Amino acid sequence: MTPWKPMDRKVPLVCVAGILVVLILGMPPCFAEENASVRVKWIADGDTIILQDGRHVRYIGIDTPEIDHQNHKAAPFGYEARTVNRQLVEGWTLRLVFDWEKKDHYGRVLAYVYRRDGLFINAEIVRQGYAHVLYHPPNIDKIDALIAAQREAMQANRGVWQIIDKTQRTQQAFRGNRRSRRFHTRYCPKGKQISKGNLIWFENEWSAFWAGYAPARECVRLRTMP
Length: 226
Description:
5 helices; alpha+beta; 23% helix; 4-stranded mixed β-sheet; 2 domains
């Protein structure tokens, strides 16, 4: 786990060196934390928190079932996911670590969130079975750790994985896109647009999730999704 350490407002020399490595080798730089410590004011849902300074933080690399909003009813385990998030972060001093993009198109801060004791919150919610991995380049620095946490939860049948059928065996049930790491139902028009070079077939939802793919919202309506 990443150790807790005070934040230096100046960019560390190691990060400067890292940026030079990026320019030369194309490797990602290290990203300094914006704050030495932040505190939570409100838990919006399973993967979003509101800080005491008013900023909304969206956890990078994961997606949790939705709670009630607008005309959408809560998905199974949506409120349980929010409860788990609250139990993990409420009352704790947190540290934000960024990837390539610091904000999404809604203006929310995108971050990997760590507790002061070193617990990686994004991965822990996945490990407990209340989120699935959401591959979203270029913010993929922790994707391997998140997939490992997801597979642990799947093997242990935790949370949402209790209601995903792993017994279905259909040779070409879901189309996956190797580039986006999203999967579609077989007859989804959007899925039919996937190029042959990027196309991969999954026999069921379980196998797609195991590979680190996420459901395409355009055409896959899983029981864990809104």
